[in-house]
Amino acid sequence: MKFIKIISFLLALCLLLPSVYVAGGEVIDASLDADKDEVKEGEGIRFEVFVDTDKTISGGVIRLLLPDSVFAEPSAEYTLDIDEPIQPDSSTPVAVFDLTVSDSVLEQSEDEATFTVSIDSENSNIESDGNTYNLSGEEFSFKVTPSFVSGQINAYINLESTEGISAALVGGEQPVNAALELSGKKIIYSIRRSLIDPQVEYKLTVTAPGFTDVEVDFDISQTNAVTGFYPGDVSGDGKIDVYDFNLICSYISYEHYDAFADLNKDTVVDISDVQSFAAGYKAKNGGGAND
Fold it and tell me: Looking at beta carbons, which pairs linking 202-205 to residues 24 or more positions away fall under 8 Å?
């Protein structure tokens, strides 16, 4: 009798297995793509899932496996809410995910890093004709590069270099220094976004020998333009007046170099610095700036 029960159980199991395989055992091929393979910190990236099958789709759930702490979104799940069964094709995704890379993914020492997103094959499926089929687990790798907050500093003159010029955010535990580059009569500053604490109220300070110091409020959410960084303060007293003009003239006469008098930062004190003084004096005293 015991032997008969065992045989009956095995027979029932054999009858059951085919139905389990047909309903859930087949895996449907799926592919994962994105609108870019390189993204900056804080930027968005779109992932699309395509299904390669001749079956019609009436529903299902698509999930992505996300790397820890890379995206602002903690998870990615898309429910296929389909009124009428559809036939998938290679040009139309069945699921779309718009994700945002976090502002501070990279370590300060990193210039870039590569991360991978994949289809969660165990928890992704499509429904067709009353059956459920799991999807293959393809992955997509993308590179993250640092994001910078940029702005401009009006210099009012054409500079030859940024020698001696500094711009930094102050207000936190340590100043956050900016990288500088020239663009005509403007200085473009860039600060790595991951170094900026959004909870801190910063001041942007700009200093240089021969220029009036500037300190302005800083707002990470907008482009900050700095005015008031005037050339011509040769004496360093915060003013631009005849005393500064006389100093430049004396340096030229005696062929003496002084960084405070080298207003255009070309390593020479000459007539071009007198012209720079005139431009700074005019801008500071309401004559306007030739931008």
Answer: 202/169, 202/170, 202/171, 202/172, 202/176, 203/169, 203/170, 203/171, 204/151, 204/167, 204/168, 204/169, 204/178, 205/167, 205/168, 205/169, 205/170
Angle between helix 242-253 and helix 271-284 axes, rounded to 10 deg: 170
pLDDT digits (tens, 9 = 90+) for 148-198: 999 999 999 999 999 999 999 999 999 999 999 999 999 999 999 888 888
- How many angstroms separate the CA atoms of 29 and 57, rounded? 13
What whole-number distance in Å separates Cα of residue 54 and Cα of residue 89?
9
Residue written as token pair 């898309």? 78
CATH architecture of 148-284: Sandwich (2.60)
Residues 103-117 pLDDT 10s: 888 887 788 999 999
N-terminal to C-terminal alpha carbon distance within the chain: 102
Phi, psi of 9 (to 5 degrees): -65, -45
Looking at CATH, the fold of the domain delimited by 25-145 is given as: Immunoglobulin-like (2.60.40)
- The residue among 190, 183, 226, 184 whose CA lies nearest residue 208 is 226
User: What is the domain partition of the chain in residue ranges?
Assistant: 25-145, 148-284
